[in-house]
Amino acid sequence: MKTHDENRAKPFKCKLCDYSTDNKHYLTSHLKIHDKNREKSLKCYQCDYKTDLKSHLKSHMQIHNPNREKFPCLYCNYETTIRSSLKRHLKKQHYPNRV
Ligand SMILES: [Zn+2]
Ligand SMILES: [Zn+2]
Ligand SMILES: [Zn+2]
């Protein structure tokens, strides 16, 4: 009778739940499910921007690039490196009634 063979030692145990495994790699990937606080762990070092996606951070960083093309407002001295921000500015400041 070898009914206990499947329960052989699982030395890697999760501290946060009952999960245990004999494969360290599985434990490491299991631990990610308890990792809720690490959401938005990527931070911009130049402003308060935070994200959990590397690609988002990368595109965010473009706004700090001094060589980036700027979009000035034609009606005031506002300028921005983000085209959508200029659009928002125009709509809000200069065309508040336009839909
Ligand atoms: Zn766990
Ligand atoms: Zn930033
Ligand atoms: Zn303006």
Automatic annotation (TrEMBL):
SMART domains: ZnF_C2H2. Keywords: Metal-binding, Repeat, Zinc, Zinc-finger. SUPFAM superfamilies: beta-beta-alpha zinc fingers. PROSITE patterns: ZINC_FINGER_C2H2_2 (PS50157). It comes from the Eukaryota. Residues 12-39, 42-69, 71-99 form the C2H2-type domain. One of its GO terms (molecular function) is zinc ion binding. GO terms for biological process: positive regulation of transcription by RNA polymerase II. It holds the Pfam family zf-H2C2_5. Signal peptide: none annotated. GO terms for cellular component: nucleus. This is C2H2-type domain-containing protein. It comes from Polypedilum vanderplanki.
